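Lab meeting, item 3. Inverse folding demo.
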């Protein structure tokens, strides 16, 4: 609604996981660097955890976007899958139509593909989002995928991404074998208050906002207070505050606009 008024190329505060809008806080940059290192070094299992709205899916997409040429990738967004379905989902996302419906045939197909990749000097990475919701049986099947290896190389690198409950799941005795195979563990934290202004500015400039379109420091402080450092909450507040500024006819988002956003979203925050 306000894109034309603010001369924006696109919406700056969408809550979709667009990696172009990823703000490189210290925690997000560390997670991005560690996960890329883990994939490129063939570390096998890795985890990425963080509270709801902290940017896990965005980081996952950014990791996949920045992998070197010759890295095949799959991003599984639906964790409500059976053991066989999860193998078929990985095959499909790797661009391989499953040759059969039974699990053994699918695993053999996946193993053959991964060995061909290794022969060509290629790699494969699989990210499973919302992994805290995987069934115990599905987690065990994912663990068994780590057996697809040679004497020297892990054929597939697997990142389990999820909410903090994932860490609790992995502490369960029945998942100890999976837990022991995790080589890297990353955690996303909330943005510190001092980084919220830079985060807002980053998203505005990425969306093509001209210099005069900005948030007043008092508006930034209010967004920081009620956003609690969670990118998704900050985005929601900023979007509503920009709408208030548009209705008011102002190119700068002021404290009154941010306060109006807080009041309108109070029951949702």
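The presenter then showed the designed sequence:
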């Amino acid at each position: 609604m306000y894109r034309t008024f603010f001369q924006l190329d696109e919406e700056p505060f969408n809550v979709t996981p667009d990696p172009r809008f990823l703000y490189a806080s210290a925690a997000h940059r560390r997670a991005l660097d560690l996960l890329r290192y883990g994939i490129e070094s063939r570390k096998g299992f890795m985890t990425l955890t963080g509270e709801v709205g902290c940017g896990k899916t965005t980081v996952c997409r950014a990791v996949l976007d920045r992998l070197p040429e010759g890295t095949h990738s799959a991003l599984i967004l639906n964790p409500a899958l059976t053991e066989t379905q999860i193998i078929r989902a990985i095959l499909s996302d790797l661009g391989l139509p499953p040759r059969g419906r039974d699990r053994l045939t699918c695993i053999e197909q996946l193993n053959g593909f991964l060995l061909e990749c290794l022969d060509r000097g290629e790699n494969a990475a699989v990210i499973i989002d919302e992994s805290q919701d995987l069934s115990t049986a599905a987690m065990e099947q994912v663990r068994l995928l780590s057996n697809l290896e040679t004497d020297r190389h892990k054929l597939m690198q697997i990142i389990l991404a999820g909410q903090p409950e994932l860490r609790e799941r992995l502490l369960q005795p029945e998942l100890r074998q999976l837990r022991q195979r995790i080589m890297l563990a990353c955690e996303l934290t909330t943005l510190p208050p001092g980084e919220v202004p830079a985060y807002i500015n980053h998203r505005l400039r990425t969306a093509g906002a001209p210099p005069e379109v900005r948030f007043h420091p008092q508006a930034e402080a209010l967004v920081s207070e009620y956003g609690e450092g969670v990118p998704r909450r900050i985005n929601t507040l900023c979007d509503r505050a920009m709408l208030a500024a548009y209705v008011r006819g102002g190119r700068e988002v002021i404290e009154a606009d941010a306060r109006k956003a807080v009041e309108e979203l109070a029951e949702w925050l």
